[in-house]
Amino acid sequence: MLYCDSYLIDGRALAIKSVFVGENRSKIYSTHQTYYSKLTPKELLEKACLNHMSSMDGRMKAAKGLLNITMKPPFIIIPNEWGVFPTESPDNVDCVYIFNHRFTLEEITKGESIITFLNGTKIKVEASKN
Asked: What span, in angstroms and rounded, lies between the C-alpha atoms of 3 and 39?
């Protein structure tokens, strides 16, 4: 089990989801490995945004205004490079943050889907195909 902080939230990150195993609060899926962190997904993303001279709140507000989206806005962490979109409200503990990598989506039941990334990583999310 590997542990990390925001320095692993980079262009290789595929997704971040909440976990509650011991002191761990996040599971970070990347193109090469899965990591755990004691920080929550929101804390990890906040640090990643701050590493690139903005806050998560600022990035989300910009996305809401530019895209005219009020609910679950995707946001850019590094302009023209990589961003992320939440599957639910960021205030919901079940929110999974999906990064901009190619994937397929299969709805297994109403409100539950499997995301499969090109490297074969699969993540179950509580979200509809829409």
From this structure: 10
